[in-house]
Design a protein that fits this description.
alpha+beta, two-stranded antiparallel sheet, 5 helices, 7 strands
Amino acid sequence: FLYLTDRASFMIISGGVNIYPQEIENELITHPKVDDVAVVGVPNPDLGEEVKAIVQPVAGVEGDEALANALMAYAREHLAAYKCPRSIDFERELPRLPTGKLYKRLLKDRYWGRGGSKLVTSASCHSTFAASGPSLARLAWIAAPAMSSTARFA
């Protein structure tokens, strides 16, 4: 059986193969030069979508071509070939709320040419939590780690 514990909308369909980004993120985050990572599907004229990793390097590490090549080699060692990112972009900081939720839609929309996402920004959500009192902000922060997920085979 296959149990999906990530959002189905995040699934990447590349050449008719289903790829679950969480599995790739779980491997890349273990690299010592990676502080945070998001994996999304981006347009590919031949395959429909291809795997792209967006990486936040640890402080003091430059996100350059050498690091991208090292991360791709690392992925090839730990993942099946079709799951390896075809490209890697670097961000100073990935868009997250104080609760820890990653806004993949904001990242994905950049590559699909969709602007004007209706998602709220980190700053506006932070002020919402602050205005509703510390207990709500604390509750959201505590609940966030329990929401992390993976795809598992049983």
